[in-house]
Amino acid sequence: MLKESVIEIHRNINKPIAAAVGLPNERYTSDEGFIEDREKVIAPSWACIGFVDDLPEPNYVYPVDFMGLPLLITRDNDDVIRVFHNVCSHRGMHLADAPCRTNGLVRCPYHSWTYQLDGKLRGTPHIGGFGVHEHPEFNKAEGALREVRTETWLGCVFVNLSGTAEDFQSYIAPLTRQFNELCSVDERQRFVSDNQSGRTQLTVKSNWKLAVENYLESYHLPSVHPELNRISPLQEHFSLDYFAQGAGQGSLNYQRLSIDDKQLPNLAGWPEDQMNKALYPTLYPNTLIGLHSDHLFIMMLQPISKDETVEHVRISYVGDDALDSQYTKHHKTMLDNWSEVFGEDIFAVERMQKGRNSPGYLGGKFAPAMDEPTVHFHRWVAQCLLRGSNTEPS
Ligand code: FES
Ligand SMILES: [Fe+2]
């Protein structure tokens, strides 16, 4: 049983920043807190669960375990991406357990019912007795896989598990408005990734929220990322405009990578006088973004348990030409550089997690000039918890 009421949490975090109190430890250290995050924070929002390039060709399926929920991403013959609960509608067997190319059907290994990649139940062998594959009382249309509301954006697959979130386009609208100042919607479509040039993953022994909190602020830059801070110093960072579903920071000193006097292609419409600008927003709950004129990275947080998170990273480049082997050195250097930066953050989030086991920590203090984005996230989480508990603040 969680000790602190959501009303209390909400009240404490909504005080002025110098007096605000962060989420209690149990929200980071208990199984119950983890399940509440899933049900009340993540399920009602739009969460990233994977990448379009996880499904490299048509007729492909890709199973994902997301906070204990078995899900299945499918790409059909017409390249339509869908997500279903990865469970057979007959006796509830976990359906697909590995990514694979299919012949357009997923077969349940138990009694061999088959499903199309749009979720429709196709084959029900022997359902009417040996050799009889139909039954007059069995309505196949009712045996389809349960579909989850799904959208794709910037090469990511998003789901709204509760089915109740606002429309995805309005969810991301405040963020896309900020992006539009640097590149148009059409231009952003040019970001492409493949299976080789920019993917990695890191496992951190920490609650997913600490990875978000760490990404939101640049305050730790000089101490945790001295090399990055030399190139893109703290004083050259700025806070992005907060929006309902996210916050973040940006840099005014991004330096494009140059190897052998060659740079990666960049987005044609990106304003010439803003080439050094980069945006690092977080789209709540779990999509961490780095937008630059010549590449885009996305870090998707896959919460595994209360104290373990896998960070899946994809780097995309501008147009198919940018994936060409002439840029292999660029791809490797870019991936190495970002991997180093992300790696430097591991000890920070892991030691915050350790600190959450201490009864001497009671939600902490916020640095008024530096921790605004962190407070914004805590308030968002508290609001989700409150809404999910059907409780009004007093
Ligand atoms: S449980 Fe899937 S076919 Fe029986
Ligand atoms: Fe960092």
Note the main attributes of this structure.
Rieske Iron-sulfur Protein; Naphthalene 1,2-dioxygenase Alpha Subunit, Chain A, domain 1; 2 domains; 7-stranded antiparallel sheet; binds FE2/S2 (inorganic) cluster; 26% helix; alpha+beta; 394 residues; 8-stranded antiparallel sheet; binds fe (ii) ion
In short:
This protein has 394 residues and is α+β, with helices and mostly antiparallel strands. The chain is built from 11 helices and 20 strands.
Please characterize this protein's 3D structure.
The chain is of the alpha+beta class and about 400 residues long. It folds into two domains: about 50-150, Rieske Iron-sulfur Protein; about 165-375, Naphthalene 1,2-dioxygenase Alpha Subunit, Chain A, domain 1, CATH 3.90.380.10. It has eleven helices and 20 strands. It has helices at about 5-15, 25-30, 30-40, 170-180, 185-190, 210-215, 220-225, 225-230, 330-345, 345-355, 370-390; strands spanning about 45-50, 60-65, 70-75, 80-85, 100, 105, 115, 120-125, 145-155, 155-160, 190, 200-205, 235-240, 245-250, 260, 260-265, 280-285, 285-290, 295-305, 310-320. Strands 11, 12, 13, 14, 17, 18, 19 and 20 form an eight-stranded antiparallel sheet that branches. Helix 3 (about 30-40) packs across helix 11 (about 370-390). The radius of gyration is 23 Å and the shape is globular.
Portion of residues in beta strands equals 25-35%
User: What structural class do the secondary elements suggest?
Assistant: alpha+beta
Q: How would a crystallographer describe the biggest sheet?
A: 8 strands, antiparallel
The third-level CATH topology of the largest domain is Naphthalene 1,2-dioxygenase Alpha Subunit, Chain A, domain 1
- Give the number of helices: 11
- What would CATH call the architecture of the largest domain? Alpha-Beta Complex
CATH level 1 name of the largest domain: Alpha Beta
End-to-end span in angstroms? Answer: 22 Å
Query: How many DSSP E strands?
Result: 20
Which stretches of 5+ consecutive residues score pLDDT under 50? Answer: none
Domain tally: 2
Mean pLDDT: 95
The rough form would be described as: globular
Tell me the CATH superfamily of the largest domain: Naphthalene 1,2-dioxygenase Alpha Subunit, Chain A, domain 1
